[in-house]
Amino acid sequence: MTNEFMFSRRGFLAAFGSAVAYGATAGGVAKRRDGEILIAHCTDPQFGLGPPRAGKLMTEEGYAHDLNRCLSAIEIINALDPDLVCITGDMTQSGMDVARDWPRLLKMYHPPVVVAPGNHDVGNRVTAAAVKRFQAVFGYDYTAVTVKGWRVISANSLYWWPNKEEALCAAHEKWFADELAGAKARGEKVIVATHVPPFVKDPDEADSHDNQPLAGRRARLDACLAAGAKFYLAGHTHRYAERMYGSLPILNAETTSVTGGGRPLGFRLLRIQPDGSYTYDFVRVDQGPAVPKQKFGIMSFNIRHGQGMDGQVDLERTAAAIKREKPRFAGLSEVARRTKRTGGVNQAKTLATLTGMHSTFGRAIDLQGGQYGVALLSLDKPFGSRQVPLPGKEPRTLLLVEFPDCVVGVTHLSVSAPEERRESVDLIKAAIAGEKKPVFLMGDWNARPNSDVLTAMRSFLTVVSDETGRTFHGRKVDGPAAEQEYCIDYIAIDSAHAPKWRVSSRKTVPDVITSDHKPIVAVIESADARR
Question: 218 — alpha (psi -120 to 50), left (phi > 0) or beta?
Answer without folding.
Answer: alpha
